[in-house]
Structures are given as structure tokens and as C-alpha cells.
């Protein structure tokens, strides 16, 4: 079968793995543009003519569909195969719940994780007020998940993983490797059990790779 399309991005990227997981679950192949250079390729006129934000990830489908925004790319991959109903929902209720958790992942988790991760990755300078605000919001979001997941296997009713689980889990990858340390993880046993369950699912496992967990987070720059 021909690949579903090509994704332009740096790797590894938490914004890429949700699309890769969705493609895997649908038996589809995605190509990662081999000669892509972040900061260079995505500033060219050719790139901007297809992907107007100049950001990554961006997707060029074999059917001519060009997409920006990682959740739209992941949706395209999720809806391009036999697992579409499972991954994106097959009733209005399921679809809305999946959308709810995708929005939650972006607004309540990934935005905060990014603020907390970027100075630790030495990409942005440290800012005490931003650090405190993002940590408070992230802690609240983890609490929401811990409570909501009690007695549940997956985020949305149903027997199988959906894009709700895959997207929320992907938003936590940098969180677990840089911020949500052993002490914090211990306070969220239900969330941790769910996360381990998500990343062990065939297709998700290959996309996410092994998770690196930080033991003790760095709180201020050296
Ligand atoms: N909401 C977007 C965010 C994309 C985004 O901010 N990408 C960053 C890298 S993580 C980027 O390409 N930045 C380059 C720039 O701002 O020019 C998505 O989920 O795809």
C-alpha cells in the first residue's frame, strides 16, 4: 500500500507520535520527510505556500491534502482506515467526548508542559511567574485525570483506546521526562496505570517508543 502521506517535523516530537500511532492502528504508513531541517525548510516559500504557519508538524497527503496543526493531522490519520470509528468515535456523544479530551490535552496539558519544558531544554529563558503558573495548571490537570480515570480503562466509554487516550498521553511525554518526577507520579497512581496501559497498546508502543521518566526535576536554572 502507498504511504498515506509525508510529515514534515523534527523528531522525536510529541506532536508527531499521535499521528504515527493513529496511522499504525489503521495499518497505514507515514513518511517522515528525510531532509527536513527545522528553522530552515519550514521558512522556505515552497513550505509556506503549502503550510501557512511555517510550523511543524505539517502533513502532505498522497491525496493532495495539506494540513497544519497536529490534532488535524492525527485526525486525518485516525479517519483513514478501519479503526476510524474506534479512534474518532462512532456516535455524536463519543465524538464530542474525544474532541473534549483533545482540547484538554492541548489547552490544559501541552501548553503548560511546553512552558515548563522549554527552559529546561535551554530553548527559552527561565521565568519564575510562568513556571509557577504553568506548574499550578499542570498539577490541576493531572488531578482531573487522576479522579476521572478511577474505575475507567480508557478516557471515553468503550472497550478500546481512542484518540482521546493517544492525544492526552502524547501531551504528557515531555511532562514525564522533564517535570512530573517520582514524587509527583506517586500522587497519581491511576493516571500512571492508565498511561502505562496506553503506551503498551500495539501500534501506540511503536510510535511512542520507551518513555523516559525523570526521578527528580530541576526546579531552577543552575
Ligand atoms: N498547535 C500547533 C503548534 C505547532 C508549533 O507550535 N510548532 C512549533 C514547534 S513545537 C513550531 O513549529 N515553531 C516554529 C515557529 O514558531 O516558527 C500544533 O499542534 O501543531
TrEMBL record:
Q: Which residues cross the membrane?
A: none
Q: Which parts of the sequence belong to the GST C-terminal domain?
A: 91-222
Pfam families (UniProt xref) = GST_C, GST_N
Q: Which GO terms fall under biological process for this protein?
A: translational elongation
**Which PROSITE patterns is this protein grouped with?**
GST_CTER, GST_NTER
Q: Which InterPro entries match?
A: EF-GSTs, Glutathione-S-Trfase_C-like, Glutathione-S-Trfase_C_sf, Glutathione_S-Trfase, Glutathione_S-Trfase_N, GST_C, Thioredoxin-like_sf
Looking at the record, the residues that make up the GST N-terminal domain are 3-85
A single GO CC term for this protein reads: nucleus
Question: What is the similarity comment for this entry?
Answer: Belongs to the GST superfamily.
Q: What is this protein called?
A: Glutathione S-transferase-like protein FUS3
Amino acid at each position: 500500500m502507498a504511504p498515506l502521506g509525508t510529515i514534515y517535523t523534527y523528531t522525536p516530537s510529541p506532536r508527531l507520535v499521535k499521528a504515527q500511532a493513529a496511522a499504525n492502528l489503521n495499518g497505514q504508513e507515514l513518511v517522515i520527510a528525510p531532509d527536513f531541517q527545522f528553522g530552515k525548510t519550514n521558512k522556505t516559500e515552497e513550505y509556506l505556500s503549502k503550510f501557512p504557519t511555517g510550523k511543524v508538524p505539517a502533513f502532505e497527503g498522497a491525496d493532495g491534502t495539506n494540513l497544519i496543526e497536529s490534532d488535524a493531522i492525527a485526525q486525518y490519520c485516525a479517519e483513514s482506515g478501519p479503526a476510524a470509528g474506534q479512534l474518532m468515535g462512532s456516535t455524536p456523544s463519543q465524538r464530542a467526548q474525544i474532541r473534549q479530551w483533545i482540547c484538554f490535552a492541548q489547552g490544559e496539558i501541552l501548553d503548560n508542559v511546553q512552558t515548563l519544558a522549554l527552559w529546561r531544554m535551554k530553548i527559552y529563558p527561565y521565568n519564575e511567574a510562568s513556571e509557577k503558573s504553568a506548574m499550578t495548571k499542570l498539577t490541576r490537570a493531572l488531578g482531573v485525570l487522576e479522579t476521572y480515570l478511577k474505575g475507567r480503562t480508557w478516557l471515553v466509554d468503550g472497550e478500546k483506546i481512542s484518540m482521546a487516550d493517544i492525544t492526552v498521553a502524547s501531551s504528557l511525554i515531555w511532562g514525564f521526562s522533564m517535570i512530573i518526577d517520582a514524587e509527583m507520579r506517586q500522587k497519581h497512581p491511576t493516571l500512571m496505570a492508565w498511561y502505562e496501559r496506553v503506551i503498551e497498546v500495539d501500534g501506540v508502543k511503536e510510535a511512542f517508543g520507551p518513555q523516559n521518566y525523570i526521578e527528580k526535576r530541576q526546579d531552577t536554572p543552575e
